[in-house]
Amino acid sequence: MLTATENLRLVGDLLHLRGAEAARRADALLKRFDLLAAAGKRAGTLSGGTRRRLDLAMSLMGDPRIVFLDEPTTGLDPRSRRELWAVIRDLVATGVTIFLTTQYLDEADQLADRIAVLDGGAIVAEGTPAELKRLVPGGHIRLTFTDADGLAAAARAVPAAEVDPAQLALRVPSDGSAGRLKALLDHFDDHAVTIGELAIHTPDLDDVFFALTGSAAGKDPR
Questions:
Q1: Is residue 121 exposed (0-12), middle (13-18) or buried (19+ Cβ within 10 Å)?
Q2: Which is nearest to 43 in space by CA: 54, 33, 32?
Q3: CB under 8 Å to 9, separation ≥6 — which residues?
Q4: Residues above pLDDT 90, as percent of the chain
Q5: Cα–Cα distance between 6 and 25 in angstroms, integer?
Q6: Are 124 and 118 in contact (CB under 8 A)?
Q7: pLDDT digit string (tens) for 185-194?
Q8: Buried b (16+ CB within 10 A) or exposed e, 156-184
Q9: Burial of residue 19, with CB atoms counted within 10 A of its CB: 0-12 exposed, 13-18 middle, 19 or more buried
């Protein structure tokens, strides 16, 4: 029932801030989180993304150095989600430490300096996004060809590759590095193999999650 400004000042009261200081911080946070247009509107009438920004602004009234965010972008549309990402990055840039829980692994990949993967309430892996991705296999280069003869020539050149005749494709295990890619292309040049299209796949956090949790890790998926 309270407006955005009233919500902020209420938190100021709960933090025992003086009236002038509470008003100053509320005004600053309204500007910082692009909430000036919502300042006089009841929180219940605001969009989901605007309410999330107001929630975050309220949590910062006491100028905390550590903030816990529990799935802050759940239910948001893609635009609001990206806007909240920008707000979180700005907070980190000012020295605020953020503990973020999320089920969106791309969100963790985008925002987190370090990630802990939970399974059954226990941490099963922890590290930077790059460190976690190195825990699982699956990186490869996918090559497609215009005809079966080209595919057959490529398969002879790289016997270890996985052949997909139906898609005229070849899957070559690789870490996706520029050096490995150049070596593979040079190898095909040496064997006069012409490639139609090329795509690089490196393990992402989805691969990490499936490899380390639930039934994929040999545990009870419940």
A1: exposed
A2: 54
A3: 22, 23, 26
A4: 70
A5: 12
A6: yes
A7: 999 999 899 9
A8: ebbeebebeeeebbbbbebeeeeebbeeb
A9: exposed
Pairwise CA distance, residues 72 & 187, whole Å: 48
Degrees to nearest 5, angle at CA 157 with 152 and 160: 95
For residue 120, count other CB atoms closer than 10 A to its CB.
11
| DSSP bridge partners of 169 | 144, 164
- Give the CA distances from residue 7 to residues 125, 149, 182, in Å, rounded to whole numbers and listed in that order: 39, 69, 58
The full length of the chain comes to: 222
Q: Model confidence at 222, in pLDDT bands (50, 70, 90)? A: very low
Handedness of CA 172, 174, 177, 179 (dihedral sign): negative
- Residue 107: name the closest of 69, 136, 143 by CA: 69
Q: Which amino acid is at 204?
A: D
Please give the single-letter amino acid code of residue 45.
T
Give the three-class secondary structure for 60.
coil
d(CA 127, CA 114): 5
H helical segments located in 15-121: 19-32, 48-59, 78-93, 105-111
**Structure tokens belonging to residue 198:** 């090329």
| C-alpha to C-alpha distance for 219 and 216, rounded to whole angstroms | 7
The whole-angstrom separation of Cα 77 and Cα 118 is 26
